[in-house]
Amino acid sequence: MLSVNFFCHDFFVAVSCLACIIGLLLLWENKQHKQKDDADATEVILFRMTFCYWLVYCVAFGIEKLVLPHWEAMQMTLRITTALSYFLTFSCIVSLPLHKFAVRQVEE
Questions:
Q1: Is 47 in contact with 23 (CB distance < 8 Å)?
Q2: 40-56: pLDDT as tens digits
Q3: CA–CA separation, 104 vs 89, rounded Å?
Q4: What does the alpha-carbon distance between residue 61 and residue 81 come to, in Å, rounded to a whole number?
Q5: How far is C-alpha 45 from the geometric centre of its chain's CA atoms?
Q6: Transmembrane ranges (predicted)?
Q7: pLDDT digits (tens, 9 = 90+) for 38-95
């Protein structure tokens, strides 16, 4: 049962890694179009940061699974990287609605 949970998590991390790459490519194409104002530019930057931080998490998680167990220093560095990128992703996701709320408050 425990190995099934690990497999599901690994699968979802791999799928989300591909989704991040697709999201970054879509945002890159959006870069060609000029944003209307600073609020739109900030929103696009927050989306890019979210995708980039999650991509860093996915890559560090994948490398952590591939690294040999006796490389403790490397594993500790990867765990710190995954934790930091996870929290940075969370902060960007929380910042998106807060930013929209702040923009609406200024408009009113």
A1: yes
A2: 888 888 999 999 999 99
A3: 23
A4: 9
A5: 12
A6: 12-29, 41-63, 83-103
A7: 878 888 889 999 999 999 999 999 998 887 777 888 889 999 999 999 999 999 999 9
